[in-house]
């Protein structure tokens, strides 16, 4: 058949699959429900602070909570601090745990592979989409926080942890930096979720296990008896973005966090590859 | 058959293909040969290993042992170059329920790096048109009926021109109209030169369109060949309708037609059917009637019948309702 000869002449690089993956992810109502729920967190915090007459006393509740009334720009930071331990890992666990297992349970995995998507290429695309979701999830909190903060509270120059004061413009930039830090923090968890997702055809199981691991890691990180283990836990630097709120910026924790996350990505991507490249697709 | 047949290698060729789940051999050392241009019926009752075989053909499952060659390529290595030329429906359709039919096909088409994006839209539309889903293209798949999903699955196999189509129970869930359409679709694809490998547990559904068939039973390939070859294997039967069954049976014995069996269950006590296998070489059918008449047996009906393919199929796979294990 001449037409199929033509088709076969030159394979495309294959960005179309990534584009399609992202469009499938962001066309799902579930994805938007999660992003909206995340965005609702800073909005609820801001409304609660705004509607209660008493200023929250310093030292109680999440960091920076007491600053919100003086400067709305802190809403985003408070929202992120609240979301990092549970809400963000929850949504990332859902997306990462669904990557392969979700396709398997829908029966689409076999059709993607027969198309053929290529097993390695499919893993890469799935991981890339999960990383994009990490960024989107973090931005949902940061942007909603900034927006509601600006709408409800006075906005002015921000005093950093080091005591220096920066302009509104720069403080928005710093918020983005914090968002970037948290997005990076979640990448290791995404890789773990991707691996777990190759182990099962039941997406809910993969999601739950990923989320449980995120919680376990934080619990272990809080036990002083396990000091030696802490630097190896993927959640160890999750709340370490304070360094980005000083003048001059200290990049140490950003760097350590990035290296740790990269190591987790390497290990779990390799495990996912090892498992998935030889897996029998019987779903 | 078309020019493709000239390229020599069969469309599908397996040697000693085996898949074990634990100690259970779901597919047990089968040697399949599907010639190019054939419409190949892959028959077998539930659980006989058809889908498992198809999964191995397509590289979804790794054989426990044995080899698979598809379109002249070894499937342990060349997946990427072969699969774009193969369209497949495996164990029913699988789609994203929250996407429309067209969006689903679009998505699966992007997975194929050889499928040109410039023509994607047009190809998706024409595939949907071809299976009669043109009007439902923008409807979400969760609102599709079983038969509509099945059609969408077939459309997915037709997104690009294929050299080989592997269809696992394509008529599952289709109405008679849809079943007819699938048959004529397969015929037209075969006429274009596509090799079609179609599995079914219903012989009648594919008997009319196949040129070749193979029969699976409990993981084993028990028959394979052209339809005529398969029909010929069964022994023809002599059948006599007579009011003197015992006398007829004695004549049969004398002529070497044994064992003769008497069936008087058709309700009328006046006549019974005597049946015996016909040994082609020894007996001239015409002499049987003469022998019967000369012995005073009243003959009301006489026929020589070949086993239908259906009888063959049942004989090969067993009649019981229980799934063989
Ligand atoms: N993942 C699995 N684990 C264990 N056994 C399996 C698995 N998949 C299939 N089997 C077994 O392999 C055998 C063949 O199954 P297969 O799905 O290939 O049958 P089939 O011929 O396609 O049947 P059907 O007509 O019902 O579709 C069955 O006995 C089944 O129990
Ligand atoms: Mg089957």
Automatic annotation (TrEMBL), chain A:
Transmembrane helix found in the keyword field: yes
From which domain of life does this come?
Bacteria
Question: Which Pfam families did the record assign?
Answer: ABC2_membrane_4
**Spans traversing the lipid bilayer:** 32-53, 73-101, 122-152, 172-195, 202-220, 258-276
Record flagged with keyword Transmembrane helix: yes
* Entry keywords, A to Z: Membrane, Transmembrane, Transmembrane helix
Its name, as the record gives it, is ABC transporter permease
**Which species is this record about?**
Lacisediminihabitans profunda
UniProtKB/TrEMBL annotation, chain B:
Q: Which GO terms describe its molecular function?
A: ATP binding; ATP hydrolysis activity
- Its source organism is Lacisediminihabitans profunda
Q: Which SMART domains match?
A: AAA
Give residue ranges for domain ABC transporter.
Answer: 12-243
Give the classification, highest ranks: Bacteria, Bacillati, Actinomycetota, Actinomycetes, Micrococcales
Query: InterPro entries this protein is in?
Result: AAA+_ATPase, ABC_transporter-like_ATP-bd, ABC_transporter-like_CS, P-loop_NTPase
Q: Domain of life, per the record? A: Bacteria
The record's comment on protein family reads: Belongs to the ABC transporter superfamily.
> What is the recorded name of this protein?
ABC transporter ATP-binding protein
Which Pfam family is one of those matched by this entry? ABC_tran
Q: Which UniProt keywords apply?
A: ATP-binding, Nucleotide-binding, Transport
* UniProt KW Nucleotide-binding keyword: yes
